[in-house]
Structure formats: C-alpha cells, structure tokens
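Ticket 4471: requesting a sanity check on a complex prediction with iron/sulfur cluster. Repro inputs:
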Amino acid sequence: MTVPIELDDPSTARIVPISVNYFPHRKCNYGCGFCFHTAKTSHIEPLDNAKRGLRMLAEAGMKKLNISGGEPFLEAAFLGEIIKFSKVKLGLESTGVICNGSLVTEKWLDKYGQYLDILGVSCDSFDIETNFKIGRSQNGKGVHTKKVFQVANWCQDRGIMFKLNSVIGQYNWEEDMNYGIDEIAPFRWKVRHLKSVIHRIAKGSQTHPRCSKFSCSMAKTLDRRPSAMHERW
Ligand code: SF4
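Returned structure tokens:
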C-alpha cells in the first residue's frame, strides 16, 4: 500500500487506502539480479485472514487492488480466490496482478480471468541472451519472451487489459523494444530506469547487493533511445 495506515489510529483515520498493493509472499521462480524481493520466509497468510484484511481495507475505502510479489502465480489458487473475492464480495472497481508471466496458464485465466481487470507482466527485453543476463529465466530455459507474447494473446482473447513493465539497466539500455511492443500492444507500457528503482527502495534497505551492477546512466539512455523510453496508455 502506498500510504501506511493504522485503521484504529485516530491520527490516520482520514487516510483512505483507495489503491492498495498487496504482496502475499516474496518467493520467485526467477532470479533477476536487481530484484529486491529477497524471500526471507515462505510464510503466506491463510486465505481467510487475507480476506479479512482485505475486507477491512475495503471498508476503509479501498477501490483498487494490485497483487504482486515475489511471483504471485507460485500460489495460483490463493491468488485466484483473492481476486475473485475482491471482485465479487468486495465489489472493487479494479483488480490487477503483476507477475513475470512464466506461470500463467489458460486454465487459471478461464477460471479467474473474469474477475481480473489488469494483468501486468515484467519484461525488460525480447532477446533471449539479454534475459539470461538479467536473470529472467528459470532452470536455464530461455522461454520468457515467448511466454510474454503468449500471455498477452490470452489476455486479449479474454478482454483482460495487458500491461508491460520494463526496467532499463546495463544489459538492455541499447535495445529498441518497439517492434515487440507494437505486436503486443499493451494498454500501458511502464518503463523504469533501474537507478530510480534503487533510489526508491534504498530507504527500505532491502536493496539486493548485486542490484547496482545492473544499473546504467539514465541520461545516456534517454539520449540514445528516446523512442523506447516512454509510457503509453
Ligand atoms: S521476476 Fe520479479 S520478483 Fe521474480 S526475481 Fe525477477 S524482479 Fe524479482
């Protein structure tokens, strides 16, 4: 959640948690070098507790819920039930999931896609070797790019808005991703420079020690690839 609140604390009672980010756990099947979601525990809150917390947030004014991780699809059943509960029982205006795409299945989308408004997938490159360098792969398999396109198609078929998140750093700052973006046609392409991510999370002191080596100069990036560094809605 963007603004921390104590629902029972009178001094923060006026804060309305309209948009909530929920991280059910921090496990992941990928190993991105810049990742700051280092899994220190495999704990995940029981489903009933999670629903109770979300109901409290809805009563406090929550309208939008975004779930990420870690990789949220490692707990696919939990994720689906939370999304369904948020839409059907809480009546939220918007439900979203941010994931790495690798564990999304058509079976899951057929069951829970009707309750999902936005699916975001992290993809920093359409090049297999670059994805290996960044760490966006599991067990040495270079299938990330293929899966991103596949998930985008599945979402299109089901009327789910598809979003792409890209982090720009040392290994991909020269790549022009426009050809792939044109094909995927996400409703939004969120591009972040790794250095700004590092600054943003540094205060929480969760920065992975390897993180900074993946960074590069933002000014250089913008000078060289202006067409690839934009957001589209
Ligand atoms: S896919 Fe996301 S959560 Fe997983 S290692 Fe990469 S940045 Fe971290």
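Notes from triage: The helical segments are 47-59, 76-88, 106-112, 128-134, 144-158, 178-184, 194-202, 218-224. Leaving this open until the requester confirms.
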